[in-house]
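Schema walk-through. Below, the input block comes first and the output block second. Nothing else is stored per chain. Lengths vary across the set, and this one has 625 residues.
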Amino acid sequence: MAELARGAVTDRPWGRTLAAVGLRSMSGQLTVVSDQREYAIVFSQGAVVGAYSPLPADAVARVALTAGLLSSGQVQEISRRQSHDDGTDVVVEVGRLTPDQVARLRRRATAHRAARTFALERGEFILTDTVTAGWHPDAAVDVRAVIYLGARLNLSEHRLSSDLGLLGTSFRLRDDAVAELAQFGFTEQERSILTVLRQGANLQTAEAAAEGVDQRLVRAVVYSLACTGAADSIGDVQAQASAPPIRPSAPMIPRTRTGNTSEAVMARTATPTPATGGSRASAPPPLHSAAARTVAPTGRRSSPQIPTTSATSETPGPATPTPAASRTPTPPDPSRTTTPPPPRRVSGPVPTVAARPRPVSPAQPPTKADVRVPTAGQPARNPLAASELQSLIKAKVALVDQGADYFLLLGIKPDAPIEVVRSAFFGLVRRIHPDLLVAVGLPVTDESQRLMARLNEAYAVLNSPQRRRDYEAQVQGGGSRQATEAIVTAAITAEERYRRGQVAIKRDDLEEAAREFEAAYELKKDEGDYLAMLTWVRFCVAPNKEQAAAVARQGFERASRMAPESLTPRFWYGRLERVLGRTQQALTHFRWVLDQDPRHAEAAAEVRVLMSREQPSRGPVLKKR
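--- output ---
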């Protein structure tokens, strides 16, 4: 694990720290430890693709409840079920969510968990290139939307006032930032604030100009713009009354308040007194330490962007790249030395940090012809963006129709490393996501949906080492397109049947689980997890446990050899030994799981129960069950 930077959450405005990671298109995990609680934010190419918060309010079920996707009764049902992951699969099953609702829920949960770090008044952070928290490509959110959401909902009044004092006294919105305002999640409510900032204003002037707008909202807008470099600090000036109105290139949808108390904007306080002094730089100078490593990319990277979404749901759209040009913030202070506890470990592929950013051309300031005010109730149209997306979709669909392989479809070489695969996939998906098509005024057609499905297939295969080897062997062997597609379809179908089996286990339907796991294993006989789960349910339904135990042990041993790094075979092997009364053998397996994943709740619970039984081992209490 390479440590890239570390520091304290109070070293600088927290929005500056997140912007330094996101707008430099970095990948890795930012872990924060505060009051013995651990939070994590996962970045991939600058987009926030995952986040972890220990607070119950940030659980997926609670987020779905506030979004109106679940009822309170359904939340109670979900809470009674146990889930080793973040619980999304149970929420999807109980709420019967559509794929689009699932994607929006993932983005909403990711944004709110990442924004929760703004509520931390103290704590240490560490940025590493190793990811241990859960993440999902559908959860990609623009870091600017996270910063604005965190400043608006979670940053304390004291921190917001003091951080604004550090950022400057008066601010002017940069001309080249107008086209990127939709990436913050701004709506019609923020228009008056952005208009007065176009010519420059201090906080008092901006609050006075935004009549009827909550003062905290004004400060949150200024804070997010200043932290990301979209607004420059210009000293103590007054806004001109003739400031031209803001005309964003993406729609600003009117925000209406909901009754969700958990998302209510915090109470207003008096306007903070601006710090004295002259003009300030838009970003503080970097802090260096000889004892610690810093991240100093030499080139400019494109920062992610998201289309504007409805403010009633507080749900950021998918992250999409947009040039950050000269507004790259300073990287986090790396001079701290305290190491937080290791974050939880999860199995599966994770994003990694690229060694050197790829330079891009600076963004060109939009002209009046390029940006228009959207008609009420309709999305704004950017002709240039719409034309570019149409050409991209047409070209990619043509490749699909011609039977192009996954490498050609993603635009990468056959020997491209996994980091390049992920970068190409995220880059394409962010551009043709249905939310973005709607934002630029394009319809979501059958062709675009077919292309999205094909890209997801390509990523599912090329992101898995075993599936990629099978696919490459088929392609290099001159196999037909039909045969290659059959292999891919079998792998995807097997994964779906495996997930269904997991859901069946959680509702104690062992016979259904056995059918699903058997179907998954028949389709993909080289997956150790499939064999492990099939072995467990077969043991559970067997009438004679003593006879089934020997067969089950052989199955778990084989599954462990097939997937030596997977937690699944060893955990269920331990549960088998525990059921059979073999305490020491069970503890061996559970402790191995905890060594790999210290936050594996089920393994930890098993160890606690078994150790409590071991305490009176000198007496006659300990018996085999």
